[in-house]
Each structure stands twice: as C-alpha cells, then as structure tokens.
UniProtKB/TrEMBL annotation:
<dbReference type="InterPro" id="IPR008333">
    <property type="entry name" value="Cbr1-like_FAD-bd_dom"/>
</dbReference>
<dbReference type="InterPro" id="IPR017927">
    <property type="entry name" value="FAD-bd_FR_type"/>
</dbReference>
<dbReference type="InterPro" id="IPR039374">
    <property type="entry name" value="SIP_fam"/>
</dbReference>
<dbReference type="InterPro" id="IPR017938">
    <property type="entry name" value="Riboflavin_synthase-like_b-brl"/>
</dbReference>
<protein>
    <submittedName>
        <fullName>FAD-binding oxidoreductase</fullName>
    </submittedName>
</protein>
<dbReference type="Pfam" id="PF00970">
    <property type="entry name" value="FAD_binding_6"/>
</dbReference>
<feature type="domain" description="FAD-binding FR-type">
    <location>
        <begin position="17"/>
        <end position="115"/>
    </location>
</feature>
Length: 238
C-alpha cells in the first residue's frame, strides 16, 4: 500500500503495533544516493528473519518499505540502507531524518521467504534498493556455510559501496541495459557452470532487470527463483 487516502493511513496508525521512543543514533551518507540510518532501542522481543522490513509513513498519503540491513540485539541497534533518488516522498522523508530524532517506529515484519535455508548455493541479484537485503543475507550465508554470489547492478558512483558494506563474493555490473539483453545474459559465466545448475536465485531491485534475469535462469538452469521487484520505472511504488 504505497499510497492511500490520509484517513486510511490515520486509521492504520491507530491499530498498528509500534516501538515507542526509538532514537536515531547515526545517519551516514555512503554516497550521494545512499544513506545508512541507525536506530537505537529495545529490539529483543522481535524476530528478524532475512528480509524483515519496516513500513515508514513518509507523508500523509504515502508509505515506503525498507529492509532491515543489520540488527544487533545486545547493543540495541537496528540499521537500514536507503536509496535517495530525486524528490520522491521516500527520499524527502529519509533526507529529513537526523541523529538525535526520536520516533515511534512501526514494528518490523516479514511476509516473504527470501532465504532458502536448504539450498547449497545462492545468488542474490539487485541494485541500490537491494543493498539492505544483501547485507541481511551475509551473516546467514556465512554462518550456514552456503556457497554464494552477489550480482549487483549499480550506478558508477556506488561501485565501491559493496566493499564498503563488507559484502563478499560480489560482481558489480554497470547500469547499461545488459540485464535486459537476452544474448548477453545467456553468456554469463554462472550459466556455464554445472555447479550452479540447481542453485537458488533471489532477484530484487529493478523489476524489469529481475524479470529478464529470471527468464535467462529458466532458459539456462534448473534453479529455483524467488523474485520480488522493488521498483519499476514509471510506476509509483510496488
């Protein structure tokens, strides 16, 4: 529900479970278009599966969803990574948050099973909007000793961000339309490897790129695909 009448959001706010008096402890600009925001509070009674998210009401009639990128229960720290793009309601809201602000945070939730725990190999694909999920995956992938890869389609100003975030086993691709090119996709090295024929693929971010990648996976492997497009050019929210 990215957009709704004010009265409906007001009604939802009255019944939705919130975490009160959460303090924004740090706001870090990772690049001109990426920001990491840390919240301090008591998160000990909340379950945080990979893909847990928080819905933010960013103005009277709009809401935006952000994945929890990291949580430290003992230290009481929760983090999200936000993509700032243009003057959209989500970007404007996130740009207005400052360290020291006290907020009532909507309770983190999860409705999608991103993580296939039984899979031997996983590939996570996405763009700037997927970096929070990429960070959330990493501890589980290493703890359970999965073989994993990240394929990240990023603007040039963000090519160094995966390393800055501590991600591993990643390949960065420029946003030049390759992930909409069937011939190029079919030649990806991962499709030439027998080891990845039955892998689990998690595709998020740009819905057009993710859909095209899914078709290539189906053409070239027997792998299983989870797809959740986070945005689509020309469409307000997904």
């Amino acid at each position: 529900m990215p957009s709704a009448p004010k009265w409906l959001f007001d009604a939802v706010d009255l019944i939705i479970t919130k975490l009160s008096s959460i303090t924004i402890s740090n706001v870090q600009l990772l690049s001109a278009s990426l920001k990491r925001i840390s919240f301090a509070g008591d998160f000990s009674k909340i379950n945080f599966p990979v893909g847990a998210y928080i819905d933010f009401r960013v103005n009277a009639t709009d809401a935006r969803r952000y994945t929890v990128s990291n949580v430290d229960i003992e230290k009481g720290i929760l983090e999200i990574i936000v993509h700032l793009h243009g003057n959209g309601p989500g970007s404007n809201f996130m740009n207005g948050l400052r360290a020291g602000d006290v907020v009532d945070l909507n309770r983190p939730r999860s409705e999608r099973n991103y993580y296939a725990k039984s899979a031997e190999r996983l590939l996570i694909f996405g763009d700037e909007t997927s970096l929070g999920l990429a960070c959330a995956f990493l501890p589980e992938l290493k703890k359970k000793k999965h073989q994993f890869l990240y394929y990240l389609e990023l603007d040039e100003e963000n090519w160094n961000i995966p390393e800055q975030l501590g991600l591993e086993n990643f390949v960065v691709f420029p946003k030049n339309g390759y992930f909409k090119n069937e011939t190029w996709l079919d030649q990806l090295a991962i499709f030439q490897s027998k080891a990845w024929q039955e892998a689990h693929y998690v595709l998020t971010g740009n819905a057009s790129s993710a859909q095209a990648f899914k078709k290539a996976i189906k053409r070239n492997t027997k792998g299983k695909v989870f797809l959740h497009g986070y945005w689509l050019a020309g469409k307000k929210g997904l």
